[in-house]
Amino acid sequence: QTAAYFAENAGMEATDLSFYLSTGVGDGIGVCAGHTLYMAAKKSITGRDDIDIGRELQVGTMLGSAAVCSGGIWQPTVNALQGAGWDFTNAVIATGGVATLAFFTGLRLTRFAYSPIMDGVEEATYANLKADAALSVAVGGAAGCFLGTDVSYGAANWMGSAIGIQDTYSPLLSSAVAGTSTMLGFGVVQTGQNVV
After folding, report:
1. Could you give the CA distance from residue 35 to residue 33 in angstroms, rounded to a whole number?
2. What DSSP state is assigned to residue 122?
3. Residue 140 phi, psi (nearest 5)
4. How far, in Å, CA of 190 to CA of 141, rounded?
């Protein structure tokens, strides 16, 4: 949401390739920074010597690169589904599915590209294929739930009363609500995966 705010202020429209790239890169930076800062805090709080922040930055770079893919494909997917007249619930599912595939593809390609040059990135294996798939589905849940911030669906948006972003919201509040929406979607899917 923060990257979208900056893109809009730079004169980009939600139908421009530059907007898609800007929001994708914004997602990537956020994911990389978030992962690295989380692991730094975890190391600081737990005192675990086995957490190497340099390696975690490399993992964050891999995750962030995959997030560029899922973040960059989100808006054109939503645009296409709205243009085709898809209802809100089916658009949530489809958007989540497209983001899942984009993030998974990004993870697998970055493992191939980064593992030879980054010690913190494992090469692609069957074991991490399954883990990458599970993480990608959770990211898809986040992307689908993020559609709940779009109040243009009106009453059909059954998430709108909780996470809808109103035109009157400040950029900071909009970003906080957007983050809450993705955390909610990611958390619900990952909790389901953990139960199963």
Report:
1. 6
2. P
3. -60, -40
4. 9
The DSSP annotation for 136-162 comes to HHHHHHHHHHHGGGBGGGGGG-TTHHH
- Long-range CB pairs of 183-187 (<8 Å, 24+ gap) are 183/142, 184/145, 185/96, 185/141, 185/142, 185/143, 185/144, 185/145, 185/146, 186/138, 186/139, 186/141, 186/142, 186/145
Is residue 71 within 8 Å of residue 131, measured between CB atoms? Answer: no
Report the residue count for the chain.
Answer: 196
Q: What is the dihedral of CA 173, 178, 179, 181, to 10 degrees?
A: 130
Encoded tokens for 177: 């609500």
- What local confidence, expressed as pLDDT, does residue 1 receive? 82
Q: pLDDT digit string (tens) for 99-108?
A: 999 999 999 9
- In sequence order, which residues have a C-beta less than 8 Å from that of residue 34 and are 6 or more positions away? 60
Tokens of 185: 């979607």
Which amino acid does the sequence have at 137?
V
- pLDDT for 41 equals 98
What is the share, in percent, of the chain residues with pLDDT greater than 90?
Answer: 96
Find the farthest-apart pair of alpha carbons in the chain and give their distance in angstroms, rounded. 53
Could you tell me if 76 and 145 are in contact, meaning their C-beta atoms sit under 8 angstroms apart?
no
